[in-house]
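A favour between colleagues. Tell me how you read the following sequence-structure pair.

===
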Amino acid sequence: CHSGLAGETFASAGVPHVVCCQQESELKDTAALAFTRQFYLSLAVGHTVKESFDQGCKAVRATPNLRNAEEEMKKFILLPRDGNHDVPVFNARPLREWPKT
């Protein structure tokens, strides 16, 4: 992935929430897929950026057949490091019942 430098650039330019990977790290596709699925699902249902990021990391750690899952999880970074990520991106309302098709 090696997106750390790009992520730092976006954060320095004022983007309030940037997810990237450590610059010197190569990220496995399986880890990237697990993270993005859970991260975006969590955002879509109204969780904060920080909660969604944490859920994405947990999904990587729990991925079966992923070697060194704990190390893969640690490659993800939420920038800016001192930013307020305790905000939702979407104003999702809870569903009482799943819509019928």
About this structure: Residues 63 and 84 are 28 Å apart (CA to CA). The two ends are 39 Å apart (CA to CA). The chain is about 45% helix and 10% strand. The first strand starts at residue 18 and ends at 21.
